[in-house]
Amino acid sequence: MDTGKLPVHVGVIMDGNGRWAKKRLMPRKLGHKFGMDRMIGLAEHAKSSGVKYLTVYVMSTENLARRSKDEIEGLFTLIRKYFTVNVKKLFDRGSGIKVIGDTSVLPDDVIKILEDADNASPENPDFTLVFAINYGGRGEIVNAVNKAVINGGKVDENSFASLLYTGGIPDPDLIIRTGGEMRLSNFLTYQSAYAELYFTDVLFPDFSDAEFDKALTDYAARERRFGKA
Ligand code: IPE
Ligand code: IPE
Ligand code: MG
Looking at ligand 2, which atom is closest to the CA of residue 18? Predict the structure, then answer.
């Protein structure tokens, strides 16, 4: 592929785990387990494709507020059981991880796992997995506004962007949503202003490396004009 047409930063709204499980008469939690496995596989694949940042939407602020305790606890258990081991494998090959979202309200041991992973990231990784957990785009903007107010003085678009959780990370070039819904559900609200959007009906646990490649091919054929004629 022409690397000029390769997205630097891809965001993935990993939707459809629940429906995937339901189709197989499994509990939703098991759908999340298969989703988590697929996420790790996809990170490896995105990295070998030459993508520099993959932002994965693991849990929204709305999910945390509105889903059953059992389902949310299931997601935390997955982080406790699989995240450390699998993410470590990524690190061993020079990759980094950055956690975005309001982690302060998560269970203490989960906060520690995420902080340790973030802190252990190498300085200039060749690939970064951005892990969005208890993340909401509007909350992120309000959080940045409050930082700006405390700092005092005016901000411009660039200095404001540096106050977001994603400060220092380029805007997403491509946002993929699996699971058939055509909405962003509070994902990268500020950063997505000029992102190319790709929607697929494939449920996330079935979103294979080949499906990811299809999205990259689709992206490569698009003309990004950024307001030019
Ligand atoms: C996405 O899958 C993962 C999370 C939101 C945690 P869903 O759990 O939303 O799956 P569906 O949309 O119910 O199929
Ligand atoms: C978006 O999926 C959040 C994640 C994938 C983590 P949802 O399934 O929560 O989105 P809505 O509620 O259908 O918009
Ligand atoms: Mg969903």
Answer: 8
Q: Is the Cβ atom of 140 under 6 angstroms away from ligand 2?
A: no
19: phi then psi, degrees, rounded to nearest 5? -65, -35
Among 2, 17, 37, 63, the active-site one is 63
Annotated catalytic, 186?
A: no
Exposed/middle/buried for residue 97 (C-beta within 10 Å: 0-12, 13-18, 19+): buried
With a 6 Å cutoff on the Cβ, whether 67 touches ligand 2 is no
* pLDDT values of the chain reduced to their tens digit, one per residue, 229 residues: 555 699 999 999 999 999 999 999 999 999 999 999 999 999 999 999 999 999 999 999 999 999 999 999 999 999 998 877 887 777 777 899 999 999 999 999 999 999 988 888 888 899 999 999 999 999 999 999 999 999 999 999 999 999 999 999 999 999 999 999 999 999 999 999 999 999 999 999 999 999 999 999 999 999 999 999 9
Answer yes or no: 63 catalytic.
Answer: yes
